[in-house]
Design goal:
561 residues
Length: 561
């Protein structure tokens, strides 16, 4: 018979009740999870739009991350951050998100391994050649810091090692960790979206041809619906969410400009890539040639919105390399790639999600931009020239012979010059208090409206150069000198479109900041002995104090007996 008044029975009951409560709490925690991010910069938290995207997945998403095996410390840290991010994703996506880590070097044979490497490179996951030293042994290994995101029959490669290559390795790695949420969520969104948003490519003013924008249309069409737009017919604009104006070389008439203005007043977004000056690159050899202004008839429209593209060319000491014949070797021309100051590399950026942690952007014959008063419009500079740059006012003479001269550093003294602006807020129509242009089909006219537009003073930034050997278009930002896609022109475009079409969306995940808190190596070296002694002596002192205190307590407790 069980004695309910015994101490042993009471202890057993307490244990069983405690165990039952623990099981109940565990079940409740699994059903209603509570999560606290106690880090200062909220590094383990994800944005609300990302949570909504993951909760609303209609089909399973599979992610294969090709970062596994024996990795250097930096890539091991990147792998851990990827795993933490994906685990956070699973909290909201549940079983609709599955992931695994794969070591691409574990193929059965060298041929199959090389074939697998080539397939990853075709998906945009470029390898990094890493040299590591372990236990005095130097090893060299190809690392693929990327993932393939698949949903249904569609898949997309995602390069997860990004950031600004101009920064140090630790900073670039940290920037890559900061961008993990956006890169992965953007890929999932691209596979899950139904391409409902529409982007119009404005035609009819000598804009870039289809071959010139091959990479642009390919990059955008995977996430958006593209179409050509004739501004002279306002009905052509109906249903579009954004317009792209790509290097017009002919003038807009008043009807076209009015329809463009009204599209923006109605809340439509617009991106302008505009050249202020025209230069014939075939004529820059020898004595060179002069650059002349384009007459696009858009100056007053942009002026009303808050910016002015100046009739000048920005000259920068840090320019993209350009082939120049500097002599002959035997009977062959000696061709060298030299920095061309009229092709600035834009590595100085503003503080905005569009350009945060972005690598350098290449530009060609870019002009400066000034801001003017526009009530209600916020003007955010995005891209700048380097601190060693200047503005060459029109008329500008350009000659390849200048490359043979020694540039005087003191002349490049105008500091960072803004070359791209994001304008957002409450815009005023160019045609407010003016008569509607003759020929405009009647419509609901608006004199004010809320919108966002991007103005870039370079019409060639989004062009696909032609490979001289194959006569095929190259990706945006391709560097002919190094024969690789070295610049972030495509990322700049995609980030800009993502922000304009959904400024409260997952693009804001690019604002995440993971602070580096390095140890002070000098201080460590100076106080190394002090801390070693402290770590050795302190536990012994604590143990002795504990023994003395315990002895005194026992002595006082049993003194009465």
């Amino acid at each position: 018979m069980v004695d309910l008044n015994s101490k042993r029975t009471a202890d057993i009951l307490r244990f069983l009740i405690g165990l039952m409560l623990l099981v109940i709490l565990n079940q409740l925690a699994g059903r209603f999870p509570l999560r606290w991010d106690l880090t200062e910069e909220k590094r383990f938290s994800i944005q609300a739009p990302t949570k909504d995207l993951l909760r609303n997945l209609e089909d399973q998403v599979f992610i294969d991350v090709y970062l596994d095996g024996a990795l250097p410390a930096g890539f091991a840290r990147l792998k851990k951050s990827i795993e933490e991010t994906l685990e956070e994703f699973k909290v909201y996506a549940g079983d609709n998100l599955q992931y695994k880590f794969v070591d691409p070097s574990t193929a059965a044979s060298g041929a199959s391994r090389n074939q697998f490497y080539a397939s990853l490179a075709e998906k945009g996951i470029q390898p990094s050649n890493v040299i590591d030293t372990r236990e005095g042994e130097r090893t060299e290994k190809l690392v693929f810091p990327g993932a393939v995101v698949a949903q249904g029959t569609r898949e997309k490669g995602v390069l997860l090692l990004k950031g600004n290559k101009g920064a140090g390795p630790d900073q670039q790695l940290n920037q890559s960790i900061e961008g993990l949420e956006y890169e992965l969520a953007s890929a999932i969104r691209g596979l899950s979206s139904s391409n409902e948003q529409r982007i119009g490519l404005v035609k009819g003013h000598g804009e870039l041809g289809d071959q010139d924008i091959t990479d642009l249309t390919s990059s955008l069409s995977s996430q958006y619906r593209l179409g050509n737009v004739n501004l002279s017919i306002y009905q052509d604009l109906i249903g579009y969410d954004a317009l792209l104006v790509l290097k017009p070389t002919q003038a807009y008439n008043e009807v076209e400009k009015y329809n463009l203005d009204q599209f923006i007043m109605q809340g439509g977004k617009a991106i302008f890539f505009i050249d202020a000056l025209h230069l014939d690159m075939d004529s820059i050899r020898g004595e060179g040639t002069y650059a002349f202004p384009y007459q696009t008839n858009l100056d007053d429209l942009l002026f009303r919105y808050g910016v002015r593209i100046n009739k000048d060319l920005v000259v920068d000491r840090f320019g993209q390399r350009y082939p120049v014949v500097v002599g002959t070797i035997g009977n062959q021309p000696n061709l060298q790639w030299m920095p061309w100051p009229f092709y600035p590399l834009l590595n100085h950026k503003g503080d905005h999600p569009i350009v945060r942690n972005l690598d350098a952007v290449s530009s060609r014959m870019v002009s400066s931009i000034d801001t003017v008063k526009a009530q209600g419009v916020r003007k955010i500079p995005l891209l700048f020239s380097s601190q060693y740059s200047l503005s060459a006012e029109y008329p500008v003479k350009v000659s390849l012979n200048d490359l043979r001269k020694d540039f005087n550093p003191e002349t490049f003294n105008q500091g960072p010059i803004p070359l791209a602006y994001l304008l957002e807020g409450h815009f005023t129509s160019l045609y407010k208090n003016r008569l509607t242009p003759e020929g405009v089909v009647s419509q609901n006219r608006l004199d004010e409206g809320n919108s966002s537009i991007l103005v870039v003073a370079d019409g060639d930034m989004m062009t696909s150069q032609i490979n001289p050997k194959t006569d095929r278009p190259l990706p945006m930002g391709f560097d002919l000198a190094s024969q690789q896609e070295a610049f972030a022109n495509r990322d700049f475009l995609l980030n800009a479109v993502a922000y304009l079409l959904n400024e409260d969306g997952i693009i804001n995940a690019r604002n995440k900041e993971v602070k580096i808190r390095p140890l002070d190596t000098v201080r460590i070296a100076n106080s190394k002995l002090q801390w070693q002694v402290f770590n050795l002596v302190t536990p012994l002192v604590i143990l002795i104090i504990y023994g003395i205190v315990r002895h005194l307590i026992r002595k006082r407790k049993y003194a009465n007996f």
